[in-house]
Design goal:
heterodimer, A: mainly beta, B: mainly beta, four-stranded antiparallel beta sheet, globular
Chain lengths: 113, 113
């Protein structure tokens, strides 16, 4: 039973356009959400996070939106760059599980020049 | 400041052989984690530790053992390797409080034949 789902295995966008990556979760006890980026043959690197007390967090070209009622979060990358091509993992955590991370299966983003 | 390092980077084992994966971090983090990543499944937690001398089971602990004798090191052992343990293994660490993001090592690719 997947608690964190990324239903799109892949996404392709044109350079300069917006990339939107989506993530759904089922556990209402989750209160902290993160996005990681992973290049081939490297470990995941932390990108951006959001607490459940917020509905938006922005860091440069990256913005994460949280819709608690829908149990949905999304990552927006504007403008997309070829160097953003990677696998993006959504992760969720909560105090009830000592903030262990539950990961989605990932979305492979390809930004075409 | 090397962050999180993992040894070895690659390993091929025969069924039934044993090995130990070493994770080291120089960030003075209390919490350390071992994950495995399989195609299409994201990262799954094997074991974790909330401090020196402590360990706990994660989502997929069977077939693995761990030890945290020193704060900076977290060892993952396979006593009798099986082909189902062919995977990429990642170690991660974080501080004991907020923020809850984990920092990952570069991974160990293990093949069991």
């Amino acid at each position: 039973d997947q608690q964190v789902k990324q239903n799109s295995p892949s996404l392709s966008v044109q350079e300069g356009r917006i990339s939107i990556l989506n993530c759904d979760y089922t556990n209402s006890m989750f209160d902290y959400f993160l996005w990681y980026k992973k290049y081939p043959a490297e470990g995941p690197t932390f990108l951006i996070s959001i607490s459940s007390i917020k509905d938006k967090n922005e860091d440069g070209r990256f913005t994460v939106f949280l819709n608690k009622s829908a149990k949905h979060l999304s990552l927006h990358i504007v403008p997309s760059q070829p160097g953003d091509s990677a696998v993006y993992f959504c992760a969720a955590s909560g105090m009830d599980s000592s903030y262990k991370l539950i990961f989605g299966s990932g979305t492979r983003l390809l930004v075409r020049p | 400041n090397a962050g999180v390092t993992q040894t070895p980077k690659f390993r091929v084992l025969k069924t039934g052989q044993s090995m130990t994966l070493l994770c080291a971090q120089d960030m003075n983090h209390e919490y350390m984690y071992w994950y495995r990543q399989d195609p299409g499944m994201g990262l799954r937690l094997i074991h974790y530790s909330v401090g020196e001398g402590t360990t706990a089971k994660g989502e997929v602990p069977d077939g693995y053992n761990v030890s945290r004798l020193k704060k900076q090191n977290f060892l993952l052992g396979l006593e009798s390797a099986a082909p189902s343990q062919t995977s990429v293994y990642f170690c991660a660490s974080r501080t004991s409080g907020a923020p809850y993001e984990q920092y990952f090592g570069p991974g160990t690719r293990l093949t069991v034949t």
